[in-house]
Amino acid sequence: MPFLSDKKFLCIPYGHALSHVSRLLEIAKELRNNGAECHFGGSGKYLALPKKAGFPVHPLEEMNHEDVMKNLEVLNFK
Q1: β-bridge mates for residue 77, sequence order
Q2: Looking at the whole model, is its pTM more than 0.85?
Q3: In terms of DSSP H, where are the helices of the chain?
């Protein structure tokens, strides 16, 4: 019996960034291989990847991507 068979995880990446989704997706795959149940939540085009990999994806509201980028520019965030 896998050692994580009684565990559930909710992965909430920033779905507009491939790097955020792909990292959590790889972790979720390992968790699933060890018996855990993993779900994803969020919005953004890259959440199609976990769905394609067989993970349930639940819609969650996120900040508008353009607003996030605009605020980072105002703060001179690099």
Answers
A1: none
A2: no
A3: 18-33, 48-52, 65-74
